[in-house]
Each structure stands twice: as C-alpha cells, then as structure tokens.
Amino acid sequence: QLAIQGPLALKAMQKLTSTPVEDMVYYTFKKLDFAGVKDVIFSTTGYTGSGGCEIYFANEDGPKIWKAVMEAGAEFGIKPIGLAARDTLRLEMGFCLYGNDINDTTSPIEAGLGWITKFVDHKNFIDKDLLLSQKTNGATKKLVGFELVDKGIARQHYPILDAQGNTIGEVTSGTMGPSVKKAIGMGYVTSAFSKAGSEIFIQIRDKAIKATVVKLPFYKG
To answer: Domain span at residue 111?
Structure first.
C-alpha cells in the first residue's frame, strides 16, 4: 500500500492511468490498471485531511509503482514522508488514532464520534444501552483538542490538570503542528472542562503548562 496525499495528488496520479481518477468522490475506490500494473485498487482515502489517495497492489509490484509515483509527482514537488509526519497531519485535523485517542476502554460518544453510532429501534449491539445513556444524558468525560499557551509539547499519557492541580484527564496525542505552528494535542477531560475556551494545564515533568481547549479541527484550510 502507498498513500499519496495532498491537494495535487490525484492530478499527479492521473498521469499513471487511463481511468479517470482526478474527479473521484472522497471515500470511493476503483480497480484499475496503474503504472502498467493490472488490478490496482485506487481509493480516494487517507489520514491526513489534505486529499489524495491510497493504492493497493501486490508486494512484487512495489518497486515499479514507487518509481512511477515519484516520477509522476516530480513536477508537483512530491516527497517521501514517514509515519510520524503523517501523524502530525492527522492530529491537526483532529482524526482519532486507535491505540491513542480511542481504544476498547473509550466510547464513540466520549470521543465525539456519535455520528458513526446509529441507534435503531429493535436493533441491538454491544453496549447500546450505555452509549444511548451517554448520548441522552451526556458522557462523564470527553475527548477535546487543546493548544498550549506556555512553551512545551504534550505527549501521550501526560496528566491534564485544573487550575488547582487536580487531575481531570489524560493526554492521548500531542505534537508541534507544522501547519498551524502551535503545540497542540488531544486528550480526555471531565465534561466540565470540555467546552472550547476552558483553561487546563498539562503536566510536563514537574511543571504545569497552561493550555486552552479549542474546537477541532486545529487546521482549517
């Protein structure tokens, strides 16, 4: 699999297939001939929020496709990047990463993912009653985005405090956002501190670093 991301990704990749892909709708896919390789799955998905595609192919076709992708993207300034770079972009968009921001101890209601949780009469699923209660009555904790006011970088598992030093939550993701040029992060806090504008503190080593809860996404391009 390769992820080719960015606003010019589809335009660049169109050079490698005769099948129209430049105007594909987000979150759709096609099976097509790509860079001389048959039956490549071309999907308009990704985890950066910047548009683009993900392509799936047999392992043995990897070197050929990689070379073709880099050549096709050269005029657009394509560059290879690693997982850490991708992670900063998904965080700027407020995308949850499983194992960090969501796991088997969190709920989609707490994580702000109620839009993918459909409640239908006479249709049951695991923890339906709990999730319905959280949706109706409110969850006791919520996943929020925050920007650091003071200098520092929030990291996963750092405690989140109130002004009195009481622990009110925990950081799930944090980085320096390259696009927003701010230290940003996400974490779960008690619901009383989940509104945008709430003042919180991130415990970084022996210091409580001031931060402000903000509305997601961080990047609004």
So the answer is: 94-214
